[in-house]
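Our consortium's second objective concerns turning raw sequence data into structural hypotheses that experimental partners can test. To show how far this objective has progressed, the report includes one record in full. It was chosen at random from the queue rather than selected for favorable results. The single chain below, 410 residues long, was entered without modification.
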Amino acid sequence: MLMLIVNRIDNQHQNRYRHPMIKRTITPKLLDLSAHFPVVTITGPRQSGKTTLCKLAFPDKEYVSLEYPDIREFAQTDPRGFVAQYRGGAVLDEVQRVPGLLSYIQGVVDDDPAPGRFILTGSANFSLLESVSQSLAGRTAILTLLPFTLKEQRMLLQRDHTLFEAVFTGGFPPIYDRSPHPPDWFQSYMGTYLERDVRRLLNVTDLSAFQTFLGLCAGHSGQLMNLSRLGSDTGISHNTAKSWISVLETSYILHKLQPLHANIKKRLIRTPKLMFTDSGLLCHLLGIRTPDELRTHPLRGAIFETFVVSEILKQRFNHGENRRMNYYRDRQGLEIDAVIEKGRDLLCMEAKSSETITSSHFKGLNTFRRLMAESDRRITPVVIYGGDDDQKRSDVTVLSWKRIHDTVWY
């Protein structure tokens, strides 16, 4: 009877929240890990497509959502009996809602560590990973699923976005399924998911102050994080601002790009940069309502940088690379937007929103390469710009924004 209830609720869930059915780029990595680990845990923001991914990748597994109160109550009050129903394995969605369940899953997979038994998904990174690290250490692989990449968007649209359409729309799957006007969908997303998660993860009593803080963070995307300024402009303490940033990271709304600690004789900036995970949500929070408004927006360069870094981050996560990339900045003003370590080599990227390339776009990369010459590390410089054509140059690779994924960023 219980399984009939689960299936009935699941079908209702599919009808209400149907995501576009495409094979996600992360699928081969997910299947590979499930062939070697008894449990695979998938995290990511709400509505990034975790449920649809699991259903397509594991069509023969039972699917159970712990979002539903009756199912969650059963898992909370009788976890042993709940897990016993799925000794053959299952997809357990939103498992962070019942963190105590993980200890019982541990017992089951310890008795029979056959690979691929349980696929767990969750949207709250910190609480989920804390529970996973306590109960399933050494038993689970962890993947992060972010919204659609540019390549995945093209598979759905069967055409190319323009640059400003791509940045303005972002990658959340429901926008490509139901085709709402992006600002309308983001407004609903904010109220339905983000604010609910904030209340669950942190006791935010003044929601309007939090909304103000979120808008201020959007205005600082691509810039050095200044908690004191964000806090004072919102009217909250430094510690409260720090806690709220942590919640936004936990919800995958933003992430912190950490500075590169290069072994060179320069005074380096040690402050992380604030970066939003989805450019569409960023545009919404900045009050941008059409792609044309983005074209002339004063923060266009920072928004484009956020977009490019997000696409690189997606590629890295889709291939199981969870180590954060870095940026470089010294006190003389030299800055490199993203630096990725590949052993002793450094892949260095500059994002330029202009549609034409000029020699000034290479100045920072060339200076950085000279600085790093004494470190005996090979530098591979890449410029990603807002134009449509690639350029072959002897010292720098120039890529159109359309071909971000032509470079291996992991």
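The partners drew two points from this record. Residues 1-17 have pLDDT under 50 and may be disordered. The chain has two domains: 2-144, 150-311. Both points have been shared with the crystallography group to help prioritize constructs.
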